[in-house]
Design a protein that fits this description.
Layout (H helix, E strand, L loop, with lengths): L3 H9 L3 E4 L3 H6 L6 E2 L7 H8 L5 E5 L5 H10 L4 E4 L4 H7 L8 E3 L1 H9 L5 E4 L3 H6 L6 E2 L18 E4 L4 H12 L5 E4 L4 H6 L11
Parallel strand pairs: 1-2, 1-3, 3-4, 5-9, 6-7, 6-8, 8-9
Helix pairs in contact: 3-4
Length: 210
């Protein structure tokens, strides 16, 4: 079992901490430097494998003892080498007064209200190419979440970035990657995505195709 100190040391040495709780739990409080990928969601291991190199040291944390083993097995099934933080999971981490980070979460309506009020937020669409081409928020920047770590130089460091997808799962992972890479004011658009934005009557654009 890894102790909190052991986890901190591993992260400082380049290990990737995968928080397998729900995106909402992650946003409320998580271990600094972690990325968010809920093991409760379909495609959990596949999403992680898209953003973590096979050579990386991976540590899994869950809400408490037990569930992180299932998450670790799923990650191992896609070729990742995994360790687990088993000393009570995130519950023990917080009870011991260890530092935590947070990510602001808004729904599509909240994002629309901020943009309408003139708040300077860059909307980052992390869906696949075909999804973005079909409909996207005007002025949004498109970087699929799997490409995000290689394209950070395309993003501004002087204003908040709101990550959005189709439902809130991929955007939660993207927001956590941005925070891990040092971006401040990261916003996770959850409880719906571009589809919910469109159904609420807000404008969308589609790419012109020949």
């Amino acid at each position: 079992p890894m102790t909190p100190h052991g986890v901190e040391t591993a992260i400082a040495g380049g290990a990737i901490l995968v928080d397998a709780r729900t995106n909402e739990q992650f946003d409320e409080a998580h271990i600094p430097g972690a990325i968010s990928a809920s093991a409760y969601d379909t495609g959990f291991a596949t999403k992680v494998a898209q953003v973590v190199l096979p050579s990386a040291d991976v540590i899994v944390v869950a809400a408490s003892d037990g569930y992180e083993l299932e998450a670790a097995e799923l990650l191992a099934s896609v070729g990742l080498g995994v360790k687990v933080f088993r000393e009570g999971g995130m519950t023990a981490w917080r009870s011991e007064g260890q530092p935590v980070s947070r990510i602001e979460m808004v729904n599509p309506a909240g994002l629309a209200a901020r943009l309408a009020a003139g708040t300077e937020i860059m909307v980052l669409d992390v869906r696949d190419d075909d999804e973005f081409a079909a409909a996207h928020i005007p002025g949004s920047v498109h970087i699929p979440y799997a490409q995000l770590a290689d394209r950070l130089a395309e993003l501004p460091a002087d204003r908040p970035i709101a990550a959005i997808c189709s439902g809130g799962k991929r955007s939660g992972l993207a927001a956590s990657i941005l925070q891990r890479e040092g971006f401040d004011g990261v916003i996770h658009v959850a409880d719906g995505g571009v589809g919910a934005w469109q159904r609420a009557g807000h404008a969308v654009e589609a790419e012109q195709r020949d």
